[in-house]
Amino acid sequence: MDLSNLWFVLWGLLWIAYFVTDGFDLGVGILYPFLGRTEAERGAIRAAIGPVWDGNEVWLVIAGAMTFAAFPVLYAALFSSLYAAFFILLGALILRGTALEFRGKGTGRLWGRLWDGAFFTGSGLCAFLFGVAFGNVWRGLPLGPGGYEGSFFSLLNVYGLTTGLLFVVVFAAHGALWLALRLEGEAGGRARRVALRLWIAGSLLVLVFLVNSALYTHLYANYLTSPALMVLPALALASLFLQGTMIVKGLYGRAFAASCLVVALIFATAMAGMYPHLLPSRTAPPWGLTIYNAAAGEYTLRVMAAVALTVLPVVAAYQCWVYRVFSRPIKEEKIREEEGY
């Protein structure tokens, strides 16, 4: 495997790590106003992600930094083409993080409602905009000699919007299963009940995504020339079936593990279909970006590969340790006592 191919794999794995970890955080935020009906329940929901949410976002920072280091041309093209969309996404990320930090800094009903709304809005927008962004990347942007030849509103196409909705629902199901594992009490019970409904909706949207990918993208071209790649969508559908089976049986730990696989394999399926493209041009294919014409120099790729393969396992190990330390179920009664609700 040459360095360009290695970095394509690493780049995809970093985004998978982000969506698998921060995906359930975003899902918790999307479900927050529906599952938390009392102050104690809302406090328990926030406590379920409190120790891990900012650590999960480390993967986003690493993915962005590695994009800049390994594929600087891609980094420049994405931020110049999708500047408005990324600006809104950054605002949603800031809104969500600020809401989690400031929610406990004041008292009063209005203060709480303000930051609760910000948490829900920021989480929903993040999930939706990530889906729209990657949907358009997988579909291909109108790139030509002058760069991006579209507008902000051209991103709001059928494929981009349905992929955004897919991210929202799949992440919401992911978050519901996390809460089903972490919470005791009424909020946890609601999460367990809503998980099955979200799984049904997510399964339908996965099928829509697979059909739309055939209609609006060239993602299946690689699958026609390399049938062995079919193992990825096959495993994604098998994981989706396993997730639903475990939910019905009430085995929420296994259901959450299957949900992690669903998120990872949906993204892996799309990335395998893109290869070797990083940012296809829908209107003028020669102007698209690939792992070869967008990559940094060989020396940079070699040094960054050594750094990544050394540091990333340490980051992953530390994060696993954090998850283990904060693995005990959260009781609403304890939150009520500690917070004085």
Description:
- With 341 residues, the protein is mainly α.
- It has one domain.
- 77% of the residues lie in helices and 4% in strands.
- It has 14 helices and 6 strands.
- A two-stranded antiparallel sheet has the order 1-2. It has a two-stranded parallel ribbon with strand order 3-6. A two-stranded antiparallel sheet has the order 4-5.
- A hairpin with a 2-residue loop joins strand 1 and strand 2.
- Helix 4 packs across helix 5 and helix 8 runs antiparallel to helix 12.
- It starts with a helix and ends with a helix.
List the helices and strands and how they pair.
Elements: H1 3-35, H2 39-49, H3 53-56, H4 58-70, H5 72-81, H6 83-102, H7 109-139, E1 143-144, E2 147-148, H8 158-182, E3 183-184, H9 186-216, H10 221-225, H11 231-249, H12 252-274, E4 277-279, E5 289-290, H13 298-325, E6 330-331, H14 332-339
Parallel strand pairs: 3-6
Antiparallel strand pairs: 1-2, 4-5
Helix pairs in contact: 1-2, 1-4, 1-7, 1-8, 1-12, 1-13, 2-14, 4-5, 6-7, 7-8, 8-9, 8-12, 9-11, 11-12
